[in-house]
Amino acid sequence: ASGFLGATSQNIDKSAAMQLVAGNKSALGLTDQDLDNAIVSSAYFNSTSGTQLVYLQQSYKGLPVLNQLQTLAFKNERLVSMSGKRLKGIEKLSKMAGSTPQITAEKAVKNGAKKAY
Predict the structure, then answer these.
(1) Does pLDDT of 99 surpass 70?
(2) Integer Cα distance of 41 and 34 in angstroms
(3) Which residues of 57-76 are buried (b: 16+ CB within 10 A; e: fewer)?
(4) What per-residue confidence (pLDDT) applies to 1?
(5) What is the model's pLDDT at position 58?
(6) What is the distance between the alpha carbons of residues 70 and 60, in angstroms, rounded to a whole number?
């Protein structure tokens, strides 16, 4: 790490961070399905506060869900702070959509350009 955090933090392995999350799933209000639909975007140990910070991105079928990020702080393997949000019932909200795009990236750009003008 560099800058200010570099002096007081150290990265944590993402699988170890996910184990922290899984071990605290009840406190976080997460189901097994929620855990399956989560990605640790980053995690680090803050030596100043003695906490492990985990940034947990909600996903659906392996794809990150826009703006659905939780910041979790753990101390001594227990959740001490949580901020951010998750969409509840994402399967229902997505109408069980697949992870394969319905249009090509080129077509999406063209459609976006048409709407911009």
Answers:
(1) no
(2) 15
(3) bbbbeeeebeebbbebbbee
(4) 44
(5) 94
(6) 15
